[in-house]
Amino acid sequence: MSDALTEKTDGGIERPTKRSRQAAGIAEVAGQGLRTWIVKIVLLGILDALAVFAIFVLLGFREWAMIGIVIVVTGLLNWIYLSRRKLPAKYLAPGVFFLVLFQIFTLGYTAYIGFTNYGTGHNGSKEQAVSALMASALERVPDSPVYPVTVVEQLGTFGLLVTDPSGEALLGTEEAPLEPVDAQFDGGVAVSADGWTSLNFASVLANQDAVIALAVPVSDDPNDGALRTPDGQRAYQYVSTLEYDADAGTMTDTQTGVVYRDIGVGAFTADDGAQICPGWTITVGFDNFVRAVTEQGIRGPLVYVTLWTFVFAALSVATTFFLGLFLAIVFNDKRMRGRKFYRILMILPYAFPSFLSALVWAGMMNESFGFINQVLLGGASVPWLTDPLLAKVSVLIVNLWLGFPYMFLVCMGALQSIPDDVIEAATVDGARPWGIFRLIKLPLLLVTVAPLLIASFAFNFNNFNLIYMLTDGGPRDSSASINVGHTDILISMVYKVAFTGQNRDYGLAAAFSILIFIIVAVISIISFRKTKALEDLN
């Protein structure tokens, strides 16, 4: 066997034969292929397990469209990666998947929200709104019978296992009305049901708030009321003071006699215009965009915030670029000693996280105990962050500190890419340093830097971190009907409209986001066309 697998060279040294080397290579390739196949199967198994889990979760919310999407995407990925062909698709699939998930879907969903009234009091369906309204007006029926109950739980959802006066076991949750169920009895009281966990007294006490707030509908008709338990052992019937008429689309307050109607605005509305909340989500068309430009309480802040956003972005790009360019020219001079050390110092602000630097600057600019007022200005009381004008200046100063190192690095690289013989030829022709910079260096520099300036403008146009961490958009504009400040830019105003305050208007915030997207896209298209013209000119 040894003679068949090895051979001797002219020097008498044994080595594997050509055939054995080929067999070893084939075995190695086969082993690598097997390992690759095993890894692929494991990863696809994990993906399929996550997909099955997602399907079960979505089934609980009855999201049929999302279930279909999960099935289609999972099947497509399995088909691509289990096929011996489709090699390009194997490389493209992950990128396309995340592009659709994080870009296209996000943009599409934001656009959809912008055409709805989605927000505080309008974040569910009409059926959910009716249930919530009826539950909020529940009052105990004076002669209600006592229902023995057992509090049960399934996958984090609490329910009541009820024994009605006839001895029948019923089970329901806040979302599902009471229905007959097979149960085990102890002393004539239903104590457990298949698929549900019965809570003992200690568990009921641990979840006391949730148990007391639990209201289980008696039937599909919300006017029949619900059962509630004060102690987890006995339940009583509660009936709402609101009466819902599904055919007429009305909600009547039985105590006052006021009739609230569904007039297509996403809430039950009385004849005098009063509404009861919560309402429900509806499509409102371009109403959010119309509100943004017609309502004075929104239009006024939107106009000056938009103007300040343009000023902030333009000045941020201009100041950081010219300071970075100046420092790049200075430290690119070969006659300067210790250039490497100074260059390292120049990029230090760029090495720290911007949000952390903004918080440090906010502390340094504090009017009462900040380092700038107390140490540098000898105890002065300059309102750096509370005066509308000074707050804007402070934002620009801090953004200059954060942004010039980037421009310094970009300009340094662009200057070093300019051929020395071009500069030498201009010097020989008698050109002065200012003329060399203005007519030769700057045009060549702009060809390289112009796309980065456009990107920097787009970044500063949406520079949420700086505004939020430094001033939080303040000082507050008390004359505006929405929560907006003097240093807010469009993106921070959108954040406040959507996520702060008692009334969160996601539809209006999404409409603002669409406007921001259009503005940045138009500016970028125009700027890149100008950049192309600049390249052609050079």
Strand-residue proportion: 5-15%
How large is the radius of gyration?
A: 35 Å
How many H/I helical runs? 19
Helix content: 55-70%
- CA(first)-CA(last) distance: 74 Å
Report the count of strand segments.
18
Give a quick account of the main beta sheet: strands, pairing sense, barrel closure: 9 strands, antiparallel
Secondary-structure content class? alpha+beta
Instruction: Characterize the overall form.
Output: extended
Average of pLDDT: 88
Summarize the structure.
This protein has helices spanning 2-5, 18-61, 64-82, 87-114, 126-136, 201-206, 208-213, 287-294, 296-331, 339-346, 348-351, 354-364, 371-376, 388-416, 420-428, 433-461, 464-470, 490-499, 506-537; strands at residues 6-8, 14-16, 138-140, 147-154, 157-163, 169-173, 179-180, 183-186, 189-193, 197-198, 216-217, 226-228, 234-240, 242-245, 250-253, 259-262, 268-269, 275-276. The protein is of the alpha+beta class and 538 residues long. Strand 14 and strand 15 form a beta hairpin.
Polypeptide structure, described:
By secondary structure, the chain is α+β, with helices and mostly antiparallel strands. The chain is built from 19 helices and 18 strands. The strands form four sheets. Strands 3, 4, 5, 6, 7, 10, 11, 12 and 13 form a nine-stranded antiparallel sheet that branches. The protein has a five-stranded antiparallel sheet with strand order 14-15-16-17-18, with helices on one face. A two-stranded antiparallel sheet has the order 1-2. A hairpin with a 5-residue loop joins strand 17 (268-269) and strand 18 (275-276). The longest helix has 44 residues, at 18-61.
